Amino acid sequence: MIEAESISKLIPVLVVLILGIIESLGGLYFDDKRSKNDLTIELVCLTILPTLIQPAILAFVIFLMGLWFPFYEDYFISSFFLWHILAFLIFDDLTQYLWHRFSHENAFMWKLHRPHHVVEEMGVLVTYRNAFLYYAFMPGIWFSAILIFLGMTEVYLYYIPIKVSIILLAHSEIKWDRFLYKYKILHPLAWIVERTISTPCTHYAHHGLTAEDGVSNPNGNYGNLLFFWDVLFGTAKITRKYPTRFGAWNKMKEPWYVQLFFPIIKSKDPRSELHSIKTDIDYDPSTDYKDFNIKKFSEKC
After folding, report:
1. What is the pLDDT of residue 180?
2. Distances (CA, A) of 120 to 18, 98, 181, 274
3. Residue 1: its pLDDT value, please?
4. Which residues of the chain have pLDDT under 50?
5. Contacts 24+ apart (CB under 8 A), 56-60
6. In degrees, to the nearest 5, what angle opens at C-alpha 138 toward C-alphas 133 and 142?
7. Residue 295 pLDDT
8. For site-directed labelling of 127, which of 4, 101, 168, 176 has its Cα 20 to 30 A away?
9. Residue 294 pLDDT
10. Quick one: how far is CA 98 from the chain centroid?
């Protein structure tokens, strides 16, 4: 019999494979918009996060907690499981919403999150495109490790595959939520679903290039598992339409190692916002969209 921990790890892998195969059959990964550099970023991130970053943080936190607070190990193991679910929704999902939102409001944090947005199309492989430090310091991963130490492991084994699957589906090209909008009888259900969890429609809007199209919401729709956080904090935009253009205003695509290891490795191109921790062309959170005019910038220099 397969153990619960193995099933918990296996489900996201299967979801990635199934969605990836469907998208490949549709020709997504053979499109000119996705370069070898993009695929390298996606495959490296998809591998490193679950096999290195998350396990390392978990091991480190468990070690420190056991060393400093051994009497709290499994302290809440017998408490009501709904409290465990609530704890993960707040300390993992809500903090990830805030972390994600902060990365769109702070110039340095944007540079760590930037790889997630410079790609000009969606797909399941876009899900974990972020610089390594973006995940290394993500509060939710650290808090989750603490909750596991406190005895909430069993709920986590169910919570994490559900959350990851919803996030993967929200980025996927299959747009599973279309059927909810197609049939009028399902519209009441759609109203509930789109305000509760992240869907392709609401998350595509976040990846859209500009809010000028009336559909995209680049500086909103930050939710990961729960879209409810966007509804609660006023950052939600629901149109039941999908953007046709994706990306970020600074379209320069540095080598994969610069995007993933910044600021340890910086761009050699002065026209890039990854050239330094602070540049004259840093992302401006108050600006929805602007074309990056290389010629104009070169003349300025």
Report:
1. 95
2. 22, 24, 25, 19
3. 42
4. 1, 292-301
5. 57/136, 57/141, 57/142, 57/145, 58/144, 58/145, 58/148, 60/145
6. 120
7. 41
8. 4
9. 43
10. 12
As given in the structure block, the two tokens for residue 27 are: 């020709």
Q: Phi/psi at 207 (nearest 5 deg)?
A: -85, -5
Distance CA 54, CA 264 (A): 20
Q: Which residues lie closer than 8 Å to 103 by C-beta, 6 or more apart? A: 109, 110, 112, 113, 134
pLDDT of residue 36: 87
Exposure letters 49-72 (e unless 16+ CB within 10 A, then b) = bbeebbeebbeebeeebeeeeeee
Helix, strand, coil share (%) of the chain residues, nearest 5: 60, 0, 40
**d(C-alpha 36, C-alpha 188), whole Å:** 42
Q: Is the peptide bond before 263 cis (omega within 30 degrees of 0)?
A: yes
Long-range (24+ apart) CB contacts under 8 A made by 158-163 are 158/8, 159/85, 159/88, 159/92, 160/8, 160/12, 161/7, 161/8, 161/9, 161/11, 161/12, 162/225, 163/92, 163/93, 163/224, 163/225
The tokens for 132 are: 């390594």
